[in-house]
Amino acid sequence: MADKSTEKKVPQGKSMYKYISEAWANSSETYVKALNQERKIQWRKEENFLRIEKPTRLDRARALGYKAKQGYVLVRAKVRKGAFKKRQIKSGRRAKRKGEEQLIVSKSLQSIAEERTQKRYQNLEVLNSYWVGADGQHEWYEVILVDPACPVIQHDPKINWICNNKHKNRVYRGLTSSGKKGRGLRNKGHGAEKVRPSGAANGNRNN
Questions:
Q1: How many CA atoms lie within 13 A of 76 on its CB side?
Q2: Is pTM beyond 0.70 here?
Q3: How far apart are CA 108 and CA 169, in angstroms?
Q4: What distance in Å separates the CA atoms of residue 184 and residue 95, rounded to the nearest whole number?
Q5: Which residues contact 86 (CB under 8 A, 6 or more apart)?
Q6: What's the average model confidence in pLDDT over 104-115?
Q7: Which of 42, 48, 55, 145 has the fewest CB within 10 Å, making it most exposed?
Q8: Beta strands in 95-137 (DSSP E)
Q9: DSSP tag of 118
């Protein structure tokens, strides 16, 4: 019997998802760059929130819970870039009252895209989302939604937790991956005691 320690290890081939992930990781140097340039020409002409049939980034969609089965819906959301400042007011108001100074957006563009998508698809629940492109004025995200009323979802033990009423409107409570990142919940263990349920909420609770 051959010793296991002397046996040669056969290199394992990369999966399809790994190739897709590597191409998107270096999108400026791969075929993704030319593809995205063509896509964005079309995306600019489309609606701000458009339901699509297939994910643009299959690796990210699958990693975030998407499955090609009944009950799952994909929506490509477009949000404008910038600090969301108010329009400049020329006259009729004192400068200190016009509310243009020190405006800070507390949410990421991704979280804003998820919330706006939820507002348009109120019978569905936002599961997660991922980035697919950007230009000088806009950013595009593909949002994964789930239908809690779909029998296929209700009988799937891996996703039927979302049918529970306590998960309703989870995107507005910062429970998606993007929402948790914005609340500082990516840190775990020692040193992260004061970020639950979020840094701001913990500070308000202790004051």
A1: 21
A2: yes
A3: 18
A4: 34
A5: 98, 99, 100, 103
A6: 88
A7: 42
A8: 125-134
A9: H
